[in-house]
Sequence to fold (207 residues):
Amino acid sequence: MKMKFFIDTHKGVTGLVMILLLVLYGQWANPTAWVYVALHGAYGLLWVLKSQMFPDKQWEQPVTWLYGMGAVWGGLSLYWLGGWIIMTQGVQAPGWYLAFCIGLYSFGLFFHFAADMQKHIALHLRPGHLITDGFWRFSRNPNYFGEFLIYSGFGLLAMHPAPLVVLLLFVGAVWFPFMQRKDRSLARYPEYATYRQRVRMFVPYLW
Fold:
C-alpha cells in the first residue's frame, strides 16, 4: 500500500473525528470548537483533493500496513491534540484571537496549496529545470512554510503549548531533514548555489 493512502485517509477523517469529540464533550455552543472543526477538517479534505489533482511523488512509495498505521497514522494523530484539548477543556478563545488564528491559517493555505500547484505545473511543463520564481522567490520550501502556518493557525486555538510543541517536533524530526535532503539533491543544478545564497530555506527572509 502506498504511503499516500494512510496520509489521505487520516487527513480525510480528521473533521469527523473532531465532530465526534465535540459531541462527546458537549461543545455544541462553543464557537472555538466549531472554528477548530472547520479549519482542521477543511484542511484535511483539501489535502485529499490535492492528492488526487496534483499529487506529490514523495508519498507514492509503498509501505507496510504496520508502518502505515503505526508511524503514519500514529504520528499524524499527534496533530489532533489541539482539538482534543479544546473539546475536553471547553477552551473558548476571544474574538480577536479567533480572527488572528483564521488569518494565519488562511495565509498558510494560500502558500501551501498554491506553491504545490506551481511546483506540479512547472515540473510538468519544464521537467529538469530548477524552480526559482513565484513562491520559490520567497522560500526554498514555501509549501512547508505554508503548512507550518496552517498547523499554527488551528493549533493556537487550543491556547495551550502542547500543539505547538508537536508541530516543532515534526519540523525538527521530519520536515527539516527532508529540506536538507532536498538541498543536497538540487545541488546538481549549476545555478542552485547562487539561489541558495539568495533565498532562505524555510521562513521567507529569516531562515
Notes: The chain has a mean pLDDT of 94. The chain has one domain: 3-198.
